[in-house]
Specification:
209 residues, mainly alpha, Arc Repressor Mutant, subunit A, Tetracycline Repressor, domain 2, 2 domains, 0% strand
């Protein structure tokens, strides 16, 4: 029993250290960029010897990939459990969810989009697969809206990427001290997105492309 308790404690300690490595790396990558950060700097921030990092991550690339995979997994999980009124329009729900989620995670957003270029090919493909899952949610909303005659996105997949790119850019410039609150930003971007795809009076649903 004592041996089992020791193993559990060791695993818990190892997990705690790995979490500290992730947090330190995220902060460093967001501040200086992935290419400028060394494993030694991350180790120093965590308070361990550089060699100790390799018990958790073999390379700096592994840390970056882990951070990005974690971000996408948490994003998809959060969407599944998001709590919005049942009567809310699906596109409004997506916009509000995306804005809320990403404004609370500026560092994760910066790394997940700006550091894609530093992923090795296999890791890039893995992350792109997860990103496409998220994009598919919005594409389906747009296509369903087009079928219902509410929206006319000319090219739903391209429109999806344009909308997500616009929404994801908000954390880069938003400041709590600015003239608009987070709620104001949500409302504004809901209007922007909906107006961009609303079916104009007299426009035929078949013009959705």
């Amino acid at each position: 029993m004592a041996a089992q308790d020791t193993k559990v404690q060791t695993r818990a300690k190892g997990q705690a250290t790995a979490d500290r490595v992730r947090a330190a790396a995220m902060k460093r990558f967001a501040q200086a960029g992935y290419a400028a950060v060394s494993m030694r700097e991350i180790a120093s921030d965590v308070g361990v010897r550089p060699g100790a990092l390799y018990n958790h991550f073999q390379t700096k690339q592994d840390i970056l990939n882990d951070l990005m995979l974690g971000h996408m997994a948490q994003l998809l999980d959060a969407w599944e459990t998001a709590d919005f009124p049942d009567h809310m329009d699906a596109l409004e729900r997506f916009v509000r969810f995306h804005v809320r989620y990403h404004l609370e995670r500026a560092d994760e957003v910066f790394i997940s989009y700006m550091e894609l270029r530093n992923l090795e090919p296999d890791n890039f493909e893995t992350i792109e697969t997860e990103r496409r899952k998220y994009e598919a949610i919005l594409t389906e909303i747009l296509e369903k809206g087009a079928q219902d005659g509410r929206y006319t996105p000319e090219h739903p997949k391209v429109t999806t990427r344009a909308i997500i790119a616009m929404l994801t850019g908000i954390p880069a410039w938003f400041r709590e001290s600015g003239p608009l609150s987070k709620s104001d930003i949500e409302d504004h971007y809901v209007n922007l997105v909906q107006n961009a795809v609303l079916r104009a009076p007299g426009q035929s649903p078949r013009e959705t492309g």
